Amino acid sequence: MSPVSHPLDDVFLLGGESPVRRLGYGTAQLTGPGYWGPRGERREAVAVLRAAVEQGVTLVDTADNYGPGLAEELVAEALRPYPDELMVATKGGVVRTSDRAWHVDGRPERLRAMCEASLRRLRTERIGLYQLHRLDPEVPMADQLGALDELRQEGKIRHIGLDTLTADQLEQALSLTGIASVQNRFNLLDRSSDAVLRVCEAHGLAFLPWFPLADGALTGEAGAALTGVADRHGATRGQIALAWLLHRSPVLCPTPGTGSPVHLTENMGAREVRLSAEDMSLLEGLASARRTRPV
What's the mean pLDDT when you consider all of the chain? Predict the structure, then answer.
């Protein structure tokens, strides 16, 4: 698929009504290995969260199982009272019992309990974007989304999002209720969710790509190509990878995470990079070359 041509817009209307800046901030890196326990000093995490908002972030993405619970508590400690323009997104539907154990639980009563626990940790009466972290294959989709719809009708959440699903599942979900966003893995080297992206574009849904920096894989052949583009723009490879997402589709809203103030500022600098058609063509070819290489 060729790069999408569009004016580079810094703002996306989430759910068609809530403006957020497209480059946000994710909180997973504020927790320890396996998203379990603290990573460092609490005050350092609080400082990074505040710096993100000071640098213009209006979309903060977290989850109840980061910590577990810790990331949401940090968001509240750092950012309350929440600015009117700030969209705090969190996720539920996955239970953690250790740093390596993830248990999907989409039973309606459990989703309600998880959402209400997130409300308490975030110290808010309504969550801006509540995302189902995984669809539970043991529970009908209609029951899972029905539980979230009830929470929305009660005013406990504003928008509903989904995480890690297929294009067909997304179409099915859209037939059941209003969806504002999707989170799937998508980055410069992994375009396996292209079909999901196309559905998001067709319906005006935000696509929050996870692992937007390819989880450290921007090395080797890809790194060499990135370095060439980065040098032309006076940017870093990470900035180019994020800028590619912002140029690739107007619905892509990456939320890279970091616990480093320096790395945060570097990531935010991707908003200033303007990639040419030649740059986009070169970068687009990286995933194609990766797909054709023997496994």
Answer: 93
Distance CA 175, CA 37 (A): 38
Q: What is the 3-state secondary structure (H, E, C) of 184-208?
A: CECECCECCCHHHHHHHHHHCCEEC
- Catalytic positions: 66
CB 197 within 8 A of CB 207: yes
Give tens-digit pLDDT for 148-173: 999 999 999 999 999 999 999 999 99
Residue 210: which of 161, 269, 151 has the closest Cα?
161
Q: At what angle do helices 42-54 and 261-268 cross, to 10 degrees?
A: 20
Q: Which two tokens stand for residue 159?
A: 């928008």
What six digits make up the tokens of 32?
């320890």
Q: Please, are residues 189 and 217 in contact by the beta-carbon 8 Å criterion?
A: yes
Give just the sign of the alpha carbon dihedral 103, 105, 110, 111.
positive
Residues 204, 202: Cα–Cα separation, whole Å? 6
Of the candidates 100, 116, 181, 106, the one whose C-alpha atom is nearest the C-alpha of residue 146 is: 106
The answer to whether 189 touches 287, Cβ cutoff 8 Å, is yes
Cα within 13 Å of Cα(263), Cβ side? 14
Which pLDDT belongs to residue 163? Answer: 98
pLDDT at position 3: 41
Residue-wise pLDDT for 27-46, tens only, equals: 999 999 999 999 999 999 99
Q: Could you tell me the two tokens for 131?
A: 């995302």
